[in-house]
Amino acid sequence: MLLLLLLLLLLLLLLLLLLLLLLLLLLLTTTTYYLLLLLLLLLLTTTTTTTTTTTTTSTTTTTTTTTTTTTTTTTILLLLPTTTTTTTNNNNNFNNNNNNNEEDEERDAAADDGGGGGDDDDDDYNCGSDNDDEEEEEKEDDDDMLMMMMMMMMMVMMMMMMMM
């Protein structure tokens, strides 16, 4: 009976891990999700075992009651990579815009004077955008995070197998 209960618990744990993996695949980009994932992993990897033994001897008046409560928390959370929130300030574009503003002032001054240097094409703005590089880095970070999570899931499964 106990073995059947243990197998049922193991099956439930594996189903929860699969659900967790699916959620991870759906929401790979948010940092808050990783904190939620940490909490779920803490809840999933905490097992509580309670054993109560009561011995009563009728010939003597000795009653022995032994209650053992064991709470085991596996610290798989240390395997999770630390996630940092990166904010992009676009300082390069700001500096480019400052330089372009100086050129614009020169053009405007030349146009006010009646000079011929007042062409109005704004092709200089936002040149050299790093959006493609940022997307590639973000994708690599997401891939690295996915690999770490897969390794962690494998470690959990191995630990569950070792418990049996």
TrEMBL record:
<keyword id="KW-0472">Membrane</keyword>
<feature type="region of interest" description="Disordered">
    <location>
        <begin position="84"/>
        <end position="145"/>
    </location>
</feature>
<protein>
    <submittedName>
        <fullName>Uncharacterized protein</fullName>
    </submittedName>
</protein>
<keyword id="KW-1133">Transmembrane helix</keyword>
<keyword id="KW-0812">Transmembrane</keyword>
<feature type="transmembrane region" description="Helical">
    <location>
        <begin position="145"/>
        <end position="163"/>
    </location>
</feature>
<feature type="compositionally biased region" description="Low complexity">
    <location>
        <begin position="84"/>
        <end position="100"/>
    </location>
</feature>
<feature type="compositionally biased region" description="Acidic residues">
    <location>
        <begin position="118"/>
        <end position="145"/>
    </location>
</feature>
